[in-house]
Write a structure and sequence with these properties.
The protein is α+β, with helices and mostly antiparallel strands. The chain contains five helices and four strands; from the N terminus they run ββββααααα. Helix 2 packs across helix 4. The radius of gyration is 14 Å and the shape is globular.
Length: about 120
């Protein structure tokens, strides 16, 4: 799986409060991570997600960013906040934030980075 090429420049908003679900079908080995059992927000099925610290950040988020970048789960490797922003209408983004399925801070970070996508990707 190819890693998303997002110019994060130190942004770690997607590592905070968002549900980081493991996907064994994409190569994630749950035994390699500290996990918790959750209900998948899209399917309602049981799933495993990375644990979070008490303040809400991913357990693997360190002072200088991701501490497991070289072995990050699929959801982290492929996530592109800009594409998520573009896939949803304004009302869909508001609903996702209200329901807790997405973070306003992630959408705000995405909006700041939209200019970094190629023009044909934003059309």
């Amino acid at each position: 799986m190819k890693r998303a090429d997002v110019p994060c420049n130190g942004c770690t908003e997607c590592c905070k409060r968002d549900l980081l679900i493991l996907h064994p079908e994409c190569g994630d080995d749950p035994n390699e991570y500290e996990t918790r059992r959750v209900k998948h927000p899209l399917t309602g099925e049981p799933a495993l997600a990375l644990k979070h610290k008490a303040e809400g950040g991913c357990i693997y988020l360190g002072k200088n960013g991701c501490t497991i970048h070289d072995r990050a789960p699929a959801i982290c490797r492929e996530f592109d906040c800009r594409r998520l922003f573009l896939r949803m209408t304004r009302d869909e983004r508001k609903a996702a934030v209200k329901s807790g399925k997405a973070s306003k801070r992630v959408f705000d970070a995405a909006k700041k980075r939209l200019h970094t996508l190629e023009s044909e990707e934003t059309a």
